[in-house]
Amino acid sequence: MPLIIAQETIERVCDLRRQIHRFPELGFDVHRTAALVESELSALGIEYRRVTPTGVVGVVRGARGGPVVGLRADMDALPIPEQSGEPFSSEHANAMHACGHDAHAAMLLGAARTLQQNRKELSGTVVCIFQPAEEGPDPGGALPMIEAGVMDDPKIAAMAMLHVDTRLETGTIGITPGPVSAAADEFYISVHGRGGHGAYPHTANDAIPAAAAMVLGLQNIAARETDPLASVVVTVGTIAGGYRNNVISDKVEMSGTFRAHDPAVRGQLGQRARRVIEGIAAAYNVQATLRVVSGYPAVVNDDKLAADFAAYMATRENTRVERAAPTMGAEDFAYFAQLVPSVLVRLGIRNEGKGITAPGHSAQFRLDEDALPVGVRTLVAFANVVTSGAIRLGAERHAAGD
Ligand SMILES: [Zn+2]
Ligand SMILES: [Zn+2]
Questions:
Q1: Which residue among 37, 153, 167, 304 is buried most deeply as judged by most CB within 10 Å?
Q2: Mean pLDDT along residues 171-195
């Protein structure tokens, strides 16, 4: 029989989500949100601790021993002035929960409440991880929490997270085996020529046409050098150079992002870009440097766990499950998923009847709160099936010989 989430829990999740939404916080500075999470965990009688200055971990211990499951929510907002029109809109001028992390944190608190209330039936332990800085800055909030031991005590065997998704209707969840988000690396290019008078180009080495050729040349990495069936993005996002109309520029600065799903493809992007940049610099008689800063790896869902959980949600929880297409977005849940079998679940929040269609990261972003109980149910179901052994993990399957 499908899980029933108590009406009181659904109302509490909605209320918490709105409280977090009204006071969005950025990056690692999610002090108010972390304090709210702690006070809720405390009121529920759930043991909790700080792991990193604004990372909070709550531990629900079942009455019987069993596997340890991790559930992760992010808590940070974006530096966007809100224009959603919601009555509980941001009271901070330049911050907005435009990626749904307010809902992620509230739903995980709802799942913690449900699991805590039913801990007599729970065989195993559920670690609820509330992290800051999913949207950056580097290195993101996940990695410092992992380095501080969040996966180790108790030792987590499998993980899941939810992310709201405006591509999917409310009532639908998306579960896709394999890569679901991209690796994202930043790059910075400096082009140095020699300045001069705009009327006498032969006396100078113009950095601007060289930079223009680099922008076009870099596109060849995606268009001509990468298997068309692999996913890759090369975007030059900023370009700056020059002083005025009749001055030849001695330098241009550019920055951009590389995205890829396949680690092998990702691994070639830097050297390919360097070859293009240095070749064009030589041809244009300028100097150029390329600096690549590694960002989040791709999130790779565990094939078996994702497929088993999708089947469970569809058949046992009567939930509409779609195989949502992977995206080229980035997500630092990737670091957890590198350590243990994990599933990133997309939660449908689209509702055209309510006019809820604006994409994440836009100032008009809204989410359909009717999706919140679906999310809570998904998190609780994941915790239950893994702790109960209804879905067995890779190593156990191997030990059992099937
Ligand atoms: Zn985001
Ligand atoms: Zn997000």
A1: 37
A2: 97
